[in-house]
Amino acid sequence: MAVVESPSSAPRAEALVDLAAVRHNVGVLREAAPTAELMAVVKADGYGHGAVAVGEAALAAGASWLGVCTLEEAAELRAAGITAPLLSWLHLPDEDFTEAVATAVDLSVASRAHLAAVVAGARRAGRPARVHLKADTGMCRNGAQPADWPALLDDVEKAAADGHVEVVAVWSHLANADVPDHPSLDVQAARLTAAWQAARERGFTPIRHLANAAATLTRPDLHFDLVRPGIAVYGLDPLGRPVADTPLRPAMTLRGRVALVKRVPAGEGVSYGHEWTTPRETTLALVPLGYADGVPRRLSGRMEVLLAGERRPVVGRVSMDQVVVDCGDATVREGDPAVFFGPGDDGEPTAQDWADALGTIHYEIVTGVHRRRVTRTHTGTTG
Predict the structure, then answer these.
(1) Catalytic residue among 158, 272, 291, 363
(2) Domains of the chain, CATH where assigned
(3) 3-class DSSP state for residue 192?
């Protein structure tokens, strides 16, 4: 991702988000699921990438829906002028759904209590709510259990007859989609189909949706009417494949700028606890990103940054606001960019590298980049 700028124009801490990569990734996903509509999931501020910008890019590239977690996230997209079909799916049963119904936000319903709250919002809005009935097909998180499904449909049938709801979909979520041949996928698909058929027997004509990013790429039999890729939209492979082996392009680059450069003699302890001591005279560069910005403290002594053309080790503990980089005898200047992770095109670490080092998933890395302390800069906005 090439961005040319004067040093004084660059923020202290910056997440560069390549919207051309987002559009490319949506194109890959569209090709993988040509017979289904595509919902780009932009919850958690677009997985840390910026929900509005990513949503607009995804829609331009062929997505027809957007998906979010909360009513607040849905309201942000509507306030930005996005009018595409939009599903919000995780709510408390005492939330006020009036604005969401009034702005045509589709709402997930997982229980009779949730339905009652949505109906109340529809009454206040003066229009029917568009609902997606969520079935618990084997993940035991959100969704109605099979034993509770008939009673939920009873209430939905009455609400629809009263003009308060329109049943758009029956849906669920996969627990093991990153293992494409896991037997639970077929079990969940069968349970979803049973719940969908029960809704149809009540006279409804809902669509079905189940596939997340991994299933979009590997299980065409589970695409049904709509697929809901999330992490793959951002170029991070849901199957854990290396960057070189996936058609997806990582969209985020996290970088900072060198705040201070100093020459330090041998034998000096660096950062809290002096867990690292200079083995020789060396040049140290201070970069003002730390765990409050999204650099996990557990990476202390286990991470590198791309600085002055090479990967260089971060030494000593990761602090709240800063890290120290050992530059040896290299020429490093204050203001130089330091890339913490990115697509890997120039040899920089990737979000997958961080995840592997921490024993976690790349979702946690990109969503953990702090939204208030780290500036989002969107590139690739045209073309």
Answers:
(1) 272
(2) 33-234 (3.20.20.10), 252-379 (2.40.37.10)
(3) helix
